[in-house]
Specification:
Number of helices: 11
Order of helices and strands: HHEEEEHEHEHEEEHEHEHEHEEEHH
Shape: elongated
Radius of gyration: 20 Å
Largest sheet: 3 strands, parallel
Strand order of the largest sheet: 5-1-6
């Protein structure tokens, strides 16, 4: 009994002494940020090696609030969760959707808003792909980046459609323009952003998504001090209008 009690006390002591990411960032002056760099308008790695986007600017704001600099940690949608844990990132961002699978290995800061799945199609074909039933047909060519929530949506909701996984989430939209695919299911924010850059493409029913979704920043699990800090920083960024000003640069006016 005494041995068990001693072991329990050691365990509690170890947990109590575990350093929060809040303290680690403040001491190291470095904020480790996992991001894919391939998801405009949130995170994009330019040819000159610099990142840009809504969430990139927000990460820099978070680092500045702590007197730190950002250390970018490249990842992919397929390996995001594994990389986040293995590389000890302080935060993961860049259009990350909240999912229960990700919640199993991490926490999320307060959601930044609702952003559900919708079809992105050639405008000439928009009448053909309004519903799940219309898209869920063997002759419909759906294209998605591998490993993310877009692919998961297709597997769960569009099992009969012809799915192609594409290697590049930056040039994938040209595949629709070139008629090499018919539909891409993605978040409304990305679809609305990309239709501005590809006039041939239309985001369908962004106000009525096919699946409810939320965007949020992923943070390490079981670190309440860090979560409270990130949540408070987000609250103040929203209340002061800082987030709206940054978002307007990439998404347009936030209503």
């Amino acid at each position: 009994m005494k041995t068990m009690l001693f072991s329990a006390l050691l365990l509690v002591s170890g947990v109590a002494q575990a350093q929060s990411h809040l303290d680690q960032v403040r001491e190291s002056k470095t904020l480790k940020v996992c991001t894919t760099g391939d998801y405009k308008p949130y995170s994009y790695l330019r040819s000159d090696g610099q990142y840009e986007g809504l969430d990139i600017s927000m990460a820099e704001s978070l680092a500045e609030s702590l007197g730190a600099k950002v250390q970018w940690v490249p990842t992919t949608w397929k390996t995001l969760s594994e990389d986040f844990v293995a590389r000890n990132c302080d935060i993961a961002l860049g259009g990350v959707s909240v999912t229960l699978k990700r919640q199993q290995i991490a926490w999320f800061a307060k959601p930044l808003g609702v952003d559900g799945k919708i079809p992105l199609v050639r405008c000439a074909d928009k009448a053909k792909y309004q519903t799940i039933d219309q898209i869920n047909q063997p002759q419909v060519r759906v294209i998605e980046p591998a490993g993310g929530t877009n692919e998961a949506f297709v597997h769960s909701h569009l099992p009969n459609a012809s799915l192609t996984l594409f290697h590049d989430n930056v040039t994938i939209f040209q595949q629709l323009v070139d008629k090499k695919a018919d539909v891409m299911i993605t978040d409304a924010s990305e679809a609305l952003f990309q239709q501005k850059h590809y006039p041939q493409l239309c985001a369908l029913n962004p106000e009525q998504p096919m699946q409810y979704g939320e965007k949020a920043y992923m943070i390490p699990r079981d670190d309440m001090s860090w979560k409270q800090y990130v949540d408070q920083w987000l609250h103040l960024s929203t209340a002061t209008g800082d987030y709206a000003r940054i978002a307007e640069q990439w998404l347009g006016v936030i209503k």
